[in-house]
Amino acid sequence: MSTADSLSASGRSSEKLSLPSLQSKMKIDPEGYETELGLVYNQFKSALDLFQQQAALNFASSSGVCADPTISKDLSDRASFLAHVTPFYPKQLAEFPAQLAEFLKSSARTLPSGLRCHVTQALILLINRDMVDISETLALFMELQTLGDRTLRNLAFTHVVHSIRKMNKKHKNEAKNRALQNILFVMLQQDDEARAKRALITLCELHRRKVWFDDRTANSICMACFHSSSRIMIAALSFLLDYEKIEDDDNDDSDASSAEDDPNPRSAQVVISKESIYKAHNQGTVSSKKKKKAKLQRAIRSMKRQQRLSSENNNSNYYSPFNHLKDAQGFAERLFSRLQTCNERFEVKMMMLKVIARTVGLHRLILLNFYPFLQKYVQPHQRDITNLLAAAVQACHDMVPPDAVEPLFKQIVNQFVHDRSRPEAIAVGLNVIREICLRIPLLMNEDLLQDLVLYKKSHEKAVSVAARSLITLFREVCPSLLIKKDRGRPIDPKARPKAYGEVNIASSVPGVELLEQLDYNDEDKEDSDDVDELASRGSDEDSENDEMVSASDDGDQIYSDDAESEDGDDAVDSDCGGGDEEDEDEDEDQEEDDEDNNEVEDELVNTNVAHETNESNARAIIIKVNKSPSRKRKLSDFDGQLLAADTSLRALKKMTEEKLKKPPSDSTDGILSNEDFQRIKELTAKKDAKIALTRQGFKVPTSDDLSAKRVDPAKLEAHVRAKLSKEERLAMVRAGREDRESYKSKIAVKQKKTGGASNRQKEHKKQMPLAAKRAKVERSRQEKKKKQNRSGKQFRGKKAWK
């Protein structure tokens, strides 16, 4: 059957149809247009063969292989047409995607720019409709990015990132991801700079978007720092340094994808005033309330995003590619050896130095040769000295021996902090000293600290603030190094820094002592009732006595009230004979009581009873029986009172023994329940809140927090006024003159005056008679003559004698 017969059989004339209209009709009725599909497919094959023949004959031109633009246009149109209708004819066009990919792979470098872009778009369309797998064409699209065509490069790069993101959106296929990663890893290790650069950019973008957020990708990016090409090394260093500063994209798609791909989503808390919520729902018309609600929602979204970013930046567990280094020590040593031998410019060396410092601080490595290397550059006039000092601070941690950092520390002190140094240099030096001492407090000694503290009296705000911050630090770390007036009221006056290598090892569950203390409080409420009864029993027996005696501190003599009232001296003399025996018996009883008291006191000291009320009750009973200050007792009832006191002491002793024998709450079975852990968490939070309310200084962060924290060079220059340039100074002068009138002479101001002449101006214009003019001239002549006479003679005062 001929072509015309086939067209007429389908109900259409043999006129030529345009490809867009034919495409829309084929999508509506695929089966009715199979003949037209075969025609277009054959035309595509013939155009492709013709194009390849011309390429073989080398019909080259300045714009590409094909000098005839009609062949390129026909080929691109039919490739685009077939790509659109391929999903409707999977059997008829089964070989078309492979032909298109093979054509791009073999002739991409020699194709014209327009044809190359159209064919690439057709292949992307097939991949988006799942007609071709991305693993088969990833190497081709990475190769297309190296051709030098900017439009094609952006198109291929966007497609690769979008396809891999789409593939990992619902669930991650690890086997497929590994196959794609291996392709990029091989390209990154090649010596060809263009291919390695495109592979690195793709890996960094996928890692930043948290699509490939694994150890393999992070390690491959870090290993790119050792590439033979300096450009690849600089690109990898820049990504590693700027990773924590990268913010999410502004479009909603990237924000949504980042939120979905984030393994640890954080809930942002938003605080909006009740007044604005009330106005948005209750005040105004319907349209105004709708606008207020929309504005409120925008504010909530903005605040949530800001809080999410701030929580990510401030979180001590914030992710960095350095966290996934498999051999951090080897990475730092290799990069440091390359830094020592490279001939790169200063900016590149600074980037390498920052990466080394960040790795040493984050993983708490020991790289002893790094600190003498930094010492060579520590000068106030050094370029980028603040970034250099920030790197030095970042490389310090508690696992580094203080002797290795001490020369660098002394260099900073001697070069920055002295009387002839500029105020901004002193401020930066004091801030750096504070940050280093926060990590290694053992570097500071008493004499140096007292010299540095004297800068708190400086008239420069930056210097005085830096010195006071140093005082605040050592109030918490080691108050004994400060003089008495600078110590303030520290939380722990006996605090001292840990020795090198000293580690606190937890022997039990952290916070379990708070739980035990709470249990003791509940038990002591019951025990205190028994102690109060014992104490009240002794006081009742004392109150029943009508006549009291007073015993001296030594317990040698006892005086009677009756004897004192009648005749004190005679009573004392008459009772001397029998008083000695009573005194001996009393001394023996007191010695026994003292022994019992000492035993009870020893038991109370040895017991670690946390509740204060029990201790206070025990002390009250002991002091009451032991000292009995200025208490009067009757001689006849003294033995009974001692017996009651002895009974109460023995009861207290039994209580303490029982408390010693009783095991703690968590040692009965050795297992804490979930309720116990929840109570420990609540008690710890209450304790921290109480300490925070009473704390005068600041809380010293842990070594892990300091290692994860990135040192900001701008904070080392806090309160330092930067020196203005000439243009900035002129701009400030002009800004001050905006609301001020321009400078003019008095005559110009008078001439500009409106509203008539003044009285003095009118007198000048007034016509005077001739006699008045002559009189005025005469007066002025006489006044001038008198003035000259006065100026010629000096007045010496009147003589006191003649």
Please identify the structural class as seen in this structure: mainly alpha
Stretches where pLDDT falls below 50 for ≥5 residues? 1-15, 59-67, 246-271, 538-636, 662-668
Q: Span between N and C termini?
A: 159 Å
Q: What composes the largest sheet?
A: 2 strands, antiparallel
User: Radius of gyration from the CA trace?
Assistant: 47 Å
General shape:
extended
Walk across the major sheet and give the strand order: 1-2
The whole-number mean of residue pLDDT values reads: 75
The protein's oligomeric status is single chain
Count all strands and give the number. 2
State the helical fraction: 55-70%
Number of separate helices: 36
Strand content bin? under 5%
Domain SDA1 N-terminal: 81-458
Biased composition (Polar residues): 605-617
Biased composition (Acidic residues): 519-533, 541-604
Biased composition (Basic and acidic residues): 733-744
Task: Describe what this molecule looks like in 3D.
Keywords: Nucleus, Protein transport, Ribosome biogenesis, Transport. Its main location: nucleus. The chain has a two-stranded antiparallel sheet with strand order 1-2. The model is unreliable at 1-15, 59-67, 246-271, 538-636 and 662-668 (pLDDT under 50). The longest helix is centred in the middle third of the chain and has 33 residues, at 512-544. It is built from 36 helices and 2 strands. A hairpin with a 6-residue loop joins strand 1 (550-551) and strand 2. By secondary structure, it is mainly alpha-helical. Helix content is 65%, strand content 0%. The chain has helices spanning 3-9, 19-28, 34-56, 69-85, 96-107, 113-128, 134-144, 150-167, 174-188, 193-208, 215-223, 230-242, 252-261, 274-282, 286-314, 328-341, 346-363, 370-375, 385-394, 402-416, 423-439, 446-453, 461-477, 484-487, 512-544, 561-574, 576-606, 612-626, 638-661, 674-694, 703-708, 713-716, 726-736, 746-752, 759-765, 770-792, and strands at 550-551, 558-559. It starts with a helix and ends in a 10-residue tail after the last helix.
